[in-house]
């Protein structure tokens, strides 16, 4: 389903959950070119403050985009901005739940602000806010020929 600006109300929410796999981390490293050993090298990662490998923060943040594009508002949504605060690491095998909640609707500008949060086992790992533009509902043609 696609929600248009007139359909959106503060408090509406949607979420997805995805388990971060080894393949996800390796593929993200290849696509992004972020090959930080904190993500890819277990022996190195054991020497860090995290005590083991962590997934890329932007990999988990990408799940927010998936909620916006696929659920709320849905297909045709255009992302305009996003703030992110990384609160805790995500590890291989963790299931990340990304949730978006409509905060403000600006009908005249076709803009929506949403609170965004990612959790692992109920613990917040990312929080932020985004501004996006929902798809526009097609106008009915009226009049006579």
Question: What would your notes on this structure say?
Answer:
With 145 residues, the chain is of the alpha+beta class. It is built from 4 helices and 5 strands; from the N terminus they run βααααββββ. The chain is elongated. It starts with 12 loop residues before the first strand and ends in a 12-residue tail after the last strand. The model has no long low-confidence stretch (mean pLDDT 94).
Structural class, from helix and strand content?
A: alpha+beta
Total helices: the number is 4
- Largest sheet, described in full? 5 strands, antiparallel
Strand content range: 25-35%
Q: Total number of β-strand segments?
A: 5
In which order are the strands of the major sheet placed? 1-3-4-5-2
Quaternary state of the chains: single chain
**Ends: how far apart?**
33 Å
Provide the residue-averaged pLDDT: 94
* Principal-axis shape: elongated
Which residues sit in consecutive blocks of at least 5 with pLDDT less than 50?
none
Helix content: 10-25%
| Radius of gyration from CA coordinates | 18 Å
The sequence of SSEs as H and E is EHHHHEEEE
Topology:
Elements: E1 13-19, H1 22-32, H2 37-40, H3 42-45, H4 57-70, E2 78-86, E3 95-106, E4 111-120, E5 123-133
Antiparallel strand pairs: 1-3, 2-5, 3-4, 4-5
Main traits of this protein?
5 strands, 34% strand, 23% helix, 145 residues, alpha+beta, 5-stranded antiparallel beta sheet, 4 helices, elongated
């Amino acid at each position: 389903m696609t929600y248009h600006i007139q359909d959106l109300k503060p408090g509406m929410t949607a979420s997805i959950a995805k388990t971060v796999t080894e393949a996800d981390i390796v593929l993200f490293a290849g696509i992004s070119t972020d090959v930080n050993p904190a993500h890819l090298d277990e022996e190195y990662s054991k020497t860090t403050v995290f005590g083991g490998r962590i997934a890329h923060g932007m990999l988990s943040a990408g799940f927010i985009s998936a909620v916006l594009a696929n659920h709320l508002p849905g297909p045709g949504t255009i992302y305009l901005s996003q703030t992110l605060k990384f609160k805790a690491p995500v590890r291989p095998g963790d299931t990340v739940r990304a949730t978006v909640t409509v905060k403000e609707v600006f009908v005249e500008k076709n803009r929506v602000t949403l609170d965004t949060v990612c959790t692992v086992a109920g613990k917040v790992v990312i929080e932020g806010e985004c501004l996006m533009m929902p798809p526009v509902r097609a106008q009915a043609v009226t009049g006579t020929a």
